[in-house]
Design goal:
The complex is a heterodimer. By secondary structure, chain A is mostly helical. Chain A contains eleven helices and no strands. Chain B has helices spanning about 1-10, 25-40, 50-60, 70-80, 110-115, 130-140, 145-150, 160-165, 215-225, 230-235; strands at about 15-20, 40-50, 65, 90-95, 95-100, 120-125, 150-155, 170-175, 180, 185, 190-195, 205-210. A five-stranded mixed sheet of chain B has the order 2-1-3-12-4, sandwiched between helices. Chain B has a five-stranded mixed sheet with strand order 7-6-8-5-11. Chain B has a two-stranded antiparallel ribbon with strand order 9-10. In chain B, strand 1, helix 2 and strand 2 (about 40-50) form a beta-alpha-beta unit. Classes of the chains: A mainly alpha, B alpha/beta. The interface of A and B includes residues 88 and 185 of A.
């Protein structure tokens, strides 16, 4: 693999890792709240969180470019905070990617939390566990398949991110040039051999990642049957 | 209306499927309208980047005429026996422009000064977009590549490069004059028109694809593009021909 390809793979993996970590920190409490709440606003919030799932990446990218740009509200905020303008930076594409991959992480988590039900928590509470104890020692172990699904989906979605990064990235080597964009560049430049190498690896990687998800889920299903 | 309808009725109303490079989409819409009014035939336009359209044509896309943003792709299609040999011709020559939404970017010196003042300079992807390659030629010719390189952000095509600047995410950059030019004037902000001796020629070639070989409408459209009225329209959009 050439040095440019290696840089691209490195940026892509870094992006996917950063996005997955951000999403876990943000989505876990929100998913927990959604799974427990009786609020009548729940459908509204659930719908809002699912919007990135159905929007075309070009719409997301276009609005993010306007929102994060110097005339957009977020751009003005980031400028005041001394972060500068976010498009064309690694931070910028990480935020954009996190927004776009959000539903892929929050939904499996919420499903996992909801399927635990109230009973295990009530039992833990009567045994004197604090809410935080409950969460760490009851919820997280029981929701493990959900966490693994969420992690793989979030990571892979970020790896495969194309439209949004293409719109706000600026194709800067070592910063915002990721795998999917590089494949597009190769195809555009008639470099089909290089495109095949990267694209083929992506197909294999995606299949293996999804295989992990299904294996984990199957094991969990068997365990709950037993 | 009546005369239009009867004119359409008299001509053998056929249609032609055209793949057009994004930078020429707007002029082509106008040209298609003129052609349709003159002949009664219908022009079906599909816009995309030259590289994408080329890949689609190679894989069986049903286009009959290809208006590329470069000379390489039409020639390649002829060599690959996917286009009619010898049918390619230059329909337009692009003009590179260093453009900003702000005033005061009018000369070569303004560009050189801008390099040290601005955070980013937007250009089109030099590997895939002819305007991007011409931009790099220009910057290198002016011996400014070392200084400019860390500030470069790339749009994947000239349309996106324009979007970066028009949304003011980037304060200035290199676009096609046709994007910021209407009725003989820069539409907004200011621009330095890059002299063509600073970069490779931005010649855009058209070619008759194999699927269009038996379609008379395709041939008459290509003839129309080389006519004086069509050239006038092309010039009014900021191209040379």
């Amino acid at each position: 693999m050439s040095e440019t390809s290696l840089t691209v793979v490195w940026v892509t993996l870094k992006l996917a890792s950063v996005v997955t970590i951000i999403l876990f920190l943000v989505a876990t409490p929100l998913a927990w709240w959604l799974s427990q709440t009786q609020s009548r606003y729940k459908p509204v919030i659930s719908a809002l969180f699912a919007v990135p799932l159905v929007l075309p990446p070009t719409v997301m990218g276009f609005y993010l470019l306007l929102l994060l740009g110097p005339n957009g509200p977020i751009g003005q905020l980031s400028d005041i905070l001394g972060l500068g303008i976010l498009p064309f930076s690694f931070t910028g594409i990480a935020i954009a990617c996190a927004v776009h991959s959000f539903p892929f992480v929050i939904q499996p988590l919420q499903n996992a939390f909801e399927s635990i039900g109230k009973r295990p928590l009530e039992v833990a509470a009567t045994l004197g566990a604090s809410p935080l104890d409950c969460f760490w020692n009851v919820v997280i172990p029981l929701a493990r398949p959900g966490f693994i699904t969420a992690m793989v989906m979030g990571f892979c979605h970020a790896i495969g991110e194309f439209g949004v990064v293409l719109m706000i990235g600026g194709n800067i080597p070592g910063k915002t040039r990721v795998l999917s964009v590089q494949i597009y560049n190769h195809v555009e430049a008639m470099e089909y051999a290089q495109a095949h190498w990267l694209a083929g690896s992506m197909v294999i990687f995606s299949f293996l990642a999804l295989l992990i998800v299904y294996l984990v889920n199957q094991k969990a299903a068997k365990r709950s049957m037993a | 209306m009546i005369t239009l309808l009867s004119a359409a009725g008299l001509a053998q109303a056929g249609e032609v499927k055209v793949a057009v490079a994004s930078n020429f989409y707007k002029p082509m819409l106008q040209l298609a309208k003129e052609f349709e009014q003159a002949t009664g035939n219908r022009v079906m336009l599909s816009a995309g980047s030259t590289g994408t359209l080329y890949a689609q044509i190679k894989n069986g896309a049903p286009f009959e005429v290809f208006l590329a943003a470069d000379q390489r792709r039409p020639k390649a299609l002829e060599n690959e026996k996917l286009a009619v040999n010898g049918s390619h011709f230059t329909y337009a020559q692009g003009q590179l422009a260093f453009w900003s939404k702000n005033g005061g970017y009018k000369t070569q010196q303004d560009f050189i000064d801008a390099i040290s003042q601005v955070a980013h300079i937007a250009i089109a992807n030099p590997k895939n977009a002819p305007y991007g390659a011409a931009t790099i030629d220009t910057i290198k010719k002016l011996d400014m590549y070392e200084k400019a390189q860390p500030k470069i952000v790339e749009g994947h095509n000239i349309g996106q490069t324009y979007q970066y600047i028009s949304s003011e995410n980037v304060s200035c950059g290199f676009v096609a004059l046709s994007q910021v030019y209407q009725k003989g004037k820069i539409t907004e902000g200011s621009a330095w028109l890059v002299p063509s001796n600073l970069h490779r020629a931005l010649k855009q070639d058209a070619v008759l694809l194999n699927q269009g070989e038996s379609n008379d409408v395709a041939k008459s459209l290509l003839e129309f593009l080389q006519s004086e009225p069509a050239k006038r329209t092309i010039r009014s959009f900021g191209y040379k021909i």
